[in-house]
Amino acid sequence: MNKMQNWALASLLVLGLSGCVTINIYFPAAAAEKAADRIIDEVWQLKPDAAKTPEGEAQ
Hints:
Helix content is about 70%, strand content about 0%. The chain has 2 helices and no strands. The model has no long low-confidence stretch (mean pLDDT about 80).
C-alpha cells in the first residue's frame, strides 16, 4: 500500500473508533428516586387546585 492508502485507512479507523464512543452518566438511584417523589407530590398538589378553579378564569 502506498502512503495515500495508509493515510485513508488510518483516517477511516479513527473515524470508526470515535463513532463507537458512548458517554455514561451516573445518577445516584436514591437522589433520582427522591426527585421523582418530589415531582409527583408537586403534581398531585396542583390537581386539586385546578379542579377548584372554574374554567375560563385565570389563576
